[in-house]
Write a structure and sequence with these properties.
192 residues, Peptide Deformylase, two-stranded parallel sheet, 6 helices, 29% strand, globular, hydrolase, Peptide_deformylase, metal ion binding, metal-binding, Peptide deformylase
Length: 192
């Protein structure tokens, strides 16, 4: 089922999310709904707070990014493979490598894109959809998407990484989003 995406300004986007247990109600259905919501919104990741759940759960699909690489992207990211994965109760162990800028957007902050610097690599401890413990390191585009979604479960947004001047320049757009004065081609849930 395609769920509404929570818009900027909704308090759930600023909550530190809680770990869950395998007994979380209808978890398999929730994960399936998150995949549907992500694909129907043309996203590459979606975190539980974006669908109004303050839990440590997110899904990503960077395979679709790699498959759509143009020739320049293939040169810039020659080792990028992409990952389609569920992350539950993720906790960051470390970030490493040189920070690099990339133009990011967010389903909860539609029509706003800005360059954000993030680390090249991230190591996480998490459980998969079968609650099997995992620890893995990710890099490149996949690390970036993971760090973006991870921010969501820590109550942060990509705009929090912007310099003060950039934040002032997009202030009106953010106010319009929070006030529901924006049109997108997917369902949105506004705070008001």
């Amino acid at each position: 089922m395609n769920l509404p995406i929570v818009a900027y300004g909704h308090p759930v986007l600023r909550k530190m999310c809680d770990d869950i247990t395998p007994e979380y109600p209808e978890l398999k259905k929730l994960i399936a709904d998150m995949w549907d919501t992500m694909y129907n919104s043309n996203g590459v990741g979606v975190a539980a707070p974006q669908i109004n759940r303050a839990i440590r759960l997110f899904v990503i699909d960077t395979v679709q990014i790699v498959e759509s690489f143009d020739d320049q992207d293939k040169k810039d990211y020659p080792n990028e493979k992409g990952v389609k994965q569920v992350f539950i109760n993720a906790h960051k162990i470390e970030e490493s490598g040189e920070p690099w800028a990339y133009n990011e957007g967010c389903l909860s902050i539609p029509k706003v894109r800005e360059d954000v610097k993030r680390a090249e690599k991230v190591r996480l401890r998490y459980v998969d959809e079968n609650f099997q413990e995992q620890e893995a390191e990710f890099d490149g585009i996949t690390a970036r998407v993971i760090l973006h979604e991870y921010d969501h479960i820590d109550g942060k947004l990509f705009i929090d990484h912007l310099p003060p001047l950039k934040k002032r320049l997009i202030k009106k757009k953010l106010e319009d989003i929070a006030g529901g004065k924006i049109r997108v081609d997917y369902k949105m849930l506004f705070a008001k």
